[in-house]
Amino acid sequence: MAYVSARRQWSVFYLTAEGKAEGWGGRDRSLYAESVLEGIDYKTGEIKWKHEIGPGEGSAGIMTTAGNVLFTADTSGNLLALSPSTGETLWHLNLGGRIANSPMTYEVGGRQYLMFACDDTLYAFALPH
Hints:
mainly beta; four-stranded antiparallel beta sheet
């Protein structure tokens, strides 16, 4: 399964003095966006599931562990643990700020940890044995 973070966005384009529309290279401004995480069958390209991330631009990274858990975040500051096969939320925790980075994992003394940054704070969570 492949995973992709996508968004639906509505924009407004301004006209230049010559009456030509300017887009991404100029003064395009996003009016509204919705973000969604999609589980895609890499063999067929079929979208197997969608998980709404929320209004605005979702910018958190995605990490899937060997223990079959997908970690990411939504636009409301929630750290999410999802089932990679269904997109179902297994666990979440609101960290109270913007999560705009990729999660990482590391091991110390035989124990696995998950680390996320939220605003200017690093959070580390010990995973169950």
